[in-house]
Write a structure and sequence with these properties.
mainly alpha, two-stranded antiparallel ribbon, 18 helices, 69% helix, globular
Length: 381
């Protein structure tokens, strides 16, 4: 007499499993599809297909003063030397994979933070479709992926409440790119003060990111001592650009001339998330903290030649945190049409970079040409 009930239970279980597998397949397909689209829609592009440091070893003592800043972001170069990647195809693949790993790791942090939310997959897609992925695949061969990896590690360290991991993340960031790290730490700390009461519950007890600063200082001092021990002046590099009033003037003029495009390029498809985040603070004090957290990176973007690139890099934690807050905030997350609009903008608005002086370069998206040029760099593998 009980057999029909057993059969019904078995059929019900099978249906549930089929629905689960079907839903899982769709989610993973959407995550992979978003990642591939984020890469394909910007080319990708290799600004310098043949690495400028081939045949030389870090800290590259023969670099011209104007290029010396590259020795103070050494992680990617040192790892390439350790792996003995001494041919262009392997280096292209190496930087391509580094860019992919950095982009996915930041998006994975958003995914982890939205655990239990119906918008979890949406958060990953918005993050991977944001300005960071576009930047990294527009500049394959730069040291930016290794800085972005450090910031992703810092986000995960922030999640664990671990002083040790926070210290290690700070050391890595100071060693890899001290100047950007300082801007990130200050901006992230201000955003934390502005949004802490609106953070999801598990975030309320997290450490202020200012505690990354001691590690960053240790990392910078360590790097400077290593460079000095090689007989190279550790002060060479970015100080050359900071001390030059000519380059400062040119950067500001370029930023003003191309102001509207520069503003659009800051967040690209993540503008909706950022605007909604600005609507959250309910006091002038908290709004001031949040505006300052965005204004400081914007100032540095205006006074440097790599305008958009600098802004995107130093706002990686802010954009990731904003994505999580907006998608988990009851004021927004229950509005289905708003959620659709936020993601649609991320899919449609293509990231771009504005860089240069009085004549500013804005990316031309001939993705067919750039894709065709990429293939010969990889095929010899």
């Amino acid at each position: 007499m009980s057999e029909p009930f057993i059969t019904r239970d078995r059929d019900s279980s099978l249906r549930r499993r089929r629905r689960w597998y079907s839903g899982t397949w769709w989610i993973w397909a959407s995550l992979i599809g978003a990642t591939l689209w984020a890469i394909a829609r910007v080319g990708p592009r290799i600004p310098f297909p043949y690495s400028w440091y081939l045949g030389d070893k870090w800290p590259y003592p023969n670099l011209e003063l104007i290029q010396a800043y590259k020795r103070t972001s050494p992680t990617g170069y040192l790892l390439a030397e350790f792996l003995r990647l001494d041919s262009s195809p392997w280096l292209v693949a190496y930087y391509f994979l580094a860019a992919l790993l950095a982009s996915v790791l930041v998006a994975a942090w958003v995914w982890v933070e939205l655990r239990g939310s119906q918008h979890r997959a949406k958060g990953f897609r918005i993050a991977v479709l944001g300005p960071l992925t576009g930047l990294l695949f527009l500049t394959i061969g730069s040291y930016d992926p290794f800085t972005a990896l450090g910031l992703a590690i810092a986000l995960f360290a922030w999640r664990t409440h671990s002083r040790v991991l926070f210290l290690l993340a700070g050391i890595y960031l100071g060693f890899q790119h001290f100047e950007q790290s300082i801007v990130v730490i200050v901006s992230w700390s201000l955003a934390t003060l502005a949004l802490q009461s609106d953070f999801p519950k598990p975030w309320s007890s997290r450490r202020n990111p200012i505690w990354l600063l001691p590690g960053a200082i240790v990392g910078k001092v360590t790097l400077s001592l290593i460079i000095a021990a090689q007989g190279v002046d550790p002060a060479e590099g970015r100080l050359h650009w900071m001390e030059s009033t000519y380059w400062l003037k040119q950067a500001i003029v370029g930023s003003i001339n191309f102001g509207p495009v520069l503003l659009l390029s800051f967040f690209a498809g993540a503008w909706a998330v950022v605007i909604l985040t600005l609507m959250i603070p309910d006091t002038w004090r908290r709004r001031s903290y949040l505006l300052a957290a965005l204004l400081i990176p914007a100032i540095f973007a205006v006074i440097t030649l790599d305008h958009t690139r600098v802004f995107i890099m130093v706002t990686i934690p802010l954009v990731a945190i904003s994505t999580v807050i907006v998608l988990s905030h009851p004021r927004f997350s229950r509005n289905r049409e708003l959620m659709i609009l936020i993601e649609a903008l991320a899919w449609i608005m293509i990231p771009m970079t504005v860089q240069g002086t009085d004549v500013v370069y804005v990316d031309g998206f001939n993705v067919l040409d750039m894709g065709i040029m990429l293939l010969p760099q990889l095929i010899p593998l």
